[in-house]
UniProtKB/TrEMBL annotation:
One of its GO terms (molecular function) is glutamate synthase activity. It comes from Couchioplanes caeruleus subsp. caeruleus. SUPFAM superfamilies: FMN-linked oxidoreductases. It holds the Pfam family Glu_synthase. This is Glutamate synthase. One of its GO terms (biological process) is glutamate biosynthetic process. CDD domains: GltS_FMN. PANTHER family: ARCHAEAL-TYPE GLUTAMATE SYNTHASE [NADPH].
């Protein structure tokens, strides 16, 4: 026994000596050369530092991009568990400039019901009919104000895409395909918005050029409800994407229309148009050929493009049916740090500037506005609706709902929960059937909370929340109304009068308002 222990100890000492000798002889790391063996402790702590901060060190509201409180709310909502918080807020409201405050109304048109499950199964459709303003043949009213944002198969695993699509089918929301094409995992019952990126994946010929017939064939054979032309995204505006050849499997190659095993590069610009005028020509061509509503997705930087777009729409009769604004805080795509942190405006600032340009030219009631960029949290979403959003798209929050733990390994192909990886061993851990229910639970809970807040503001639908219902704190002693913060004029941020009347009536039919008891005799007399 003693001999065995002695042999093990001798082997351990020999291993340490070998490591020490290697450290002393190598020249790559000064720390290890100066402090052999023990210097490795520094690299170990660095490697597990994110996990230590996430689970041990950081407070409930310190982490980014999503705090522990925010993640807990998403996880509990997805599992249909208690997502309430007790003992008051732990947010530093008094000293946080920019903090939004939603103003409830004592007496409003809508009377909120107080039961926790109220509104959970409610239908909360878009307040506008997508494509109707421009007479598109296949115009429709989206069934949900909350939809799943563009995340490509290739960036996300097939199991993750399938879970999101099944979840979309369960809850009646739309799933955006992302620019990576329409895969078999997108064909599990959920309706789709097909995103057309700069590489035209899924609708390109053998030379990488856009192929209209392939697009028409794809649309005819799948539940595609709208087309979205991706100009840029919040995570990496003005940059194309790269999928390394090692990740380009046979299935991804077929979905995208590219060679297997070869690096897949997305250009930074479209080849089918070179300016705003030719962009609108292409939009109208796609709408005429497919009958579908056509929109654009973009982060917001230089405003000259938006000035040209709204000017041409106001004077030429051509135009987009919807505009998706992605905030600079968005981020399912991997990007250089400078782009992730500082290129493109954050959502509220960027959206307000773009919306104002449409409103100044009288176009805001003709376009469906979609917001993206951490809008899968109720407080952010309410502000977005007040600013003029008609729908919100959720991406990272939807990933959290199906198992993401914010490991931030999306770009390394080592996502431990199988969401953002193509590693077969890791993806096998994600059960699409189970996770689809959690995705649906999350979307339903977010819609329920938005509906409850709308009713607290005295209106029947989130799209009817106006800028007067939100104030932004300037610090401990002052607050500024949302319309003043962003220079909105009276009536901005709301659908047209006809759309307001229609959606209020629709909500009264599908989700009756009311209290829990009938008035007493004294109240009736």
């Amino acid at each position: 026994m003693k001999r065995g222990i002695g042999a093990a100890a001798a082997a351990a000492v020999s291993a340490l000596v070998a490591v020490a000798v290697r450290d002393l002889l190598q020249r790559d790391h000064a720390l290890l050369r100066n402090f052999p063996v023990i210097g490795h402790g520094r690299y170990l702590i660095e490697a597990i530092g994110p996990e230590l901060r996430q689970y041990v060190v950081a407070g409930n509201n310190e982490e980014r991009p999503f705090t522990r409180d925010q993640r807990r709310w998403v996880y509990a909502s997805a599992k249909k568990e208690n997502n309430y918080f007790g003992f008051g807020t732990d947010n530093d409201i008094e000293y946080t400039a920019g903090y939004p405050i939603i103003k409830h109304r004592t007496f409003g048109r809508a009377v909120p019901r107080s039961t926790p499950a109220a509104g959970y199964e409610a239908s909360v459709p878009c307040a506008k009919v997508l494509g109707s303003a421009r007479g598109r043949a296949r115009a429709f009213r989206p069934e949900s104000v909350v939809n799943i944002s563009g995340m490509s198969y290739g960036s996300l695993s097939g199991n993750a895409i399938e879970a999101l699509n099944r979840g979309a089918a369960l809850t009646g929301c739309l799933q955006n395909t992302g620019e990576g094409g329409l895969s078999p995992y997108h064909r599990q019952g959920g309706d789709l918005v097909f995103q057309i990126g700069t590489a035209y994946f899924g609708c390109r010929d053998e030379r990488g050029r856009f192929d209209l017939q392939r697009l028409k064939d794809l649309v005819a054979g799948a539940p595609v409800r709208a087309l979205e032309i991706k100009l840029s995204q919040g995570a990496k505006p003005s940059l194309g994407g790269l999928l390394p050849g090692a990740k380009v499997s046979a299935e991804i190659a077929t979905t995208r229309g590219i060679p297997q095993g070869v690096d897949c590069v997305s250009p930074s610009r479209h080849a089918e148009f070179s300016d705003t005028d030719s962009l609108l020509d292409w939009v109208e061509m796609l709408a005429a050929e497919t009958g579908l509503p056509v929109g654009i997705k973009s982060a917001v930087g230089d405003l000259d493009f938006w000035d040209e777009l709204t000017s041409l729409m106001a004077t030429t009769g051509r135009g987009v049916d919807f505009v998706t604004i992605d905030g600079g805080e968005g981020g399912t795509g991997a990007a250089p740090l400078i782009f992730t942190d500082t290129v493109s405006l954050p959502f509220q600032v960027g959206f307000a500037r773009v919306y104002a340009m449409f409103a100044e030219r009288g176009l805001h009631e003709q376009v469906v506005f979609v917001g993206a960029g951490k809008l899968g949290l109720p407080d952010n979403a309410v502000v977005a609706f007040a600013l003029g959003c008609d729908m919100v798209n959720v991406a990272r929050e939807a990933m959290l709902a199906i198992g993401c733990i914010q490991a931030q390994k999306c770009h390394t192909d080592t996502c431990p929960t199988g969401v953002a990886t193509q590693n077969p061993w890791l993806t096998r851990g994600l059960d699409p059937t189970l996770k689809s229910v959690r995705a649906a639970n999350y979307v339903k809970t977010l819609r329920r909370d938005l509906l409850k807040v709308a009713e607290a503001c005295g209106v029947e639908h989130p799209g009817l929340i106006d800028t007067g219902s939100v104030e932004i704190l300037d610090g401990r002693t002052a607050a500024t109304a949302l319309d003043q913060v962003y220079g909105y004029r009276p009536g901005w941020g709301l659908p047209s009068k006809a759309d307001r009347v229609a959606i209020a009536e629709l909500m009264r039919i599908t989700e009756p308002q009311g209290g829990s008891a009938t008035p007493s005799r004294s109240a009736m007399s």
